[in-house]
Design a protein that fits this description.
single chain, 3 helices, globular
């Protein structure tokens, strides 16, 4: 099963994850599912911009990348329980 898993490194805070058009096209056509688990878990106020661009913008960018495809999209949230 692991031979079917592909780990892709990109920048979730960037449009298109910072990937070139050929890579995006190949992903949109070939993936059986996409799992998004990038997150910034800082509680420091000085990291607020990183938290927003990663945790909100990253999800938006992933949704945009796979919008209009049949690729199932799974999001692993960064929720805390006290």
């Amino acid at each position: 099963l692991m031979d079917r898993v592909r780990i892709l490194r990109g920048d979730a805070s960037q449009p298109h994850l910072g990937l070139d058009a050929a890579t995006r096209s190949e992903l949109r056509q070939s993936l059986g599912a996409a799992i998004h688990c990038a997150a910034c878990t800082s509680f420091s106020a000085e990291d607020d911009d990183d938290v927003l661009s990663t945790n909100i913008g990253g999800v938006e960018n992933m949704v945009a990348l796979f919008s209009g495809t049949d690729v199932p999209f799974y999001h692993v949230s960064t929720a805390y329980v006290a």
